[in-house]
């Protein structure tokens, strides 16, 4: 069974003290986490572009969806949850599904919703799987052919210390690039500092057919010319 979604949208969800949230989504089957989205920072209407594949034993078991607000250094805040009944889907027909988020502690609160574009279809290998998929032109053909992953690498980029000065003012404008297989992440640019404070969190998926080496490079942003390489 294939389950496909093109995007998730959360509207009017939990509002933190800053007036916004850093939401991410967990998907569970049978009490086991099978997929976790990346974190979208400071956004009440996030859109994710991710793709993953999991194997399921029983399509009659509902898919449990939980939304959290990421809090650096603290316990993440629960925003709301929803269930998707796979048996309610028509085979070989893509369907838009809107799931309202609920919290048993606040049954009357409007916590927003998740919108999924779902396609349910039999799989040739006579196995049953759920695939969450978004339209992403950046996904390579190799990525599309190999979607089974065995773990999630959750990375928090905290800070840099005593980086090399690359500019005439004795400072740099550093940013960091991460790469694991086809997956890439680029941090924000911190202007005019050798001790940047990023405080950014993101996730990579660890695939069976690829190694576990994460390539980390640090760069100095230069406007109008090629960025300077600081180190790997």
UniProtKB/TrEMBL annotation:
GO terms for biological process: regulation of neurotransmitter secretion. SUPFAM superfamilies: C2 domain (Calcium/lipid-binding domain, CaLB). GO terms for molecular function: calcium ion binding. The keyword Isomerase does not apply. Residues 1-99, 133-232 form the C2 domain. One of its GO terms (cellular component) is synaptic vesicle membrane. It holds the Pfam family C2. Keywords: Calcium, Metal-binding. PROSITE patterns: C2 (PS50004). The keyword Calcium applies. It comes from the Eukaryota. Belongs to the MCTP family. This is MCTP1 protein. It comes from Nycticryphes semicollaris. The lineage of its organism: Eukaryota, Metazoa, Chordata, Craniata, Vertebrata. The gene is Mctp1_0.
């Amino acid at each position: 069974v294939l389950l496909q979604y093109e995007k998730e949208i959360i509207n009017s969800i939990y509002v933190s003290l800053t007036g916004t949230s850093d939401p991410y989504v967990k998907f569970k089957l049978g009490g086991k986490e099978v997929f976790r989205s990346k974190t979208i920072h400071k956004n009440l209407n996030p859109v994710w572009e991710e793709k993953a594949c999991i194997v399921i034993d029983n399509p009659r078991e509902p898919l449990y969806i939980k939304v959290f607000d990421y809090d650096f250094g603290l316990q993440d805040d629960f925003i709301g949850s929803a269930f998707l009944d796979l048996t309610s889907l028509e085979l070989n027909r893509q369907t838009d599904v809107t799931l309202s988020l609920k919290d048993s502690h606040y049954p009357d609160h409007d916590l927003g919703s998740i919108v999924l574009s779902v396609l349910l279809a039999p799989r040739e290998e006579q196995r049953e799987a759920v695939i969450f998929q978004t339209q992403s032109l950046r996904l390579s053909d190799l990525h599309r052919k190999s979607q089974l992953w065995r773990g999630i690498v959750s990375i928090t980029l905290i800070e840099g210390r005593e980086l090399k000065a690359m500019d005439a003012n004795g400072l740099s404008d550093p940013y960091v690039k991460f790469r694991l297989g086809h997956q890439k992440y680029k941090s924000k640019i911190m202007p005019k500092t050798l001790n940047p404070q990023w405080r950014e969190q993101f996730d990579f998926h660890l695939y069976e057919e690829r190694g576990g080496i994460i390539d980390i490079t640090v760069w100095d942003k230069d406007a109008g010319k090629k960025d300077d390489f600081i180190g790997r």
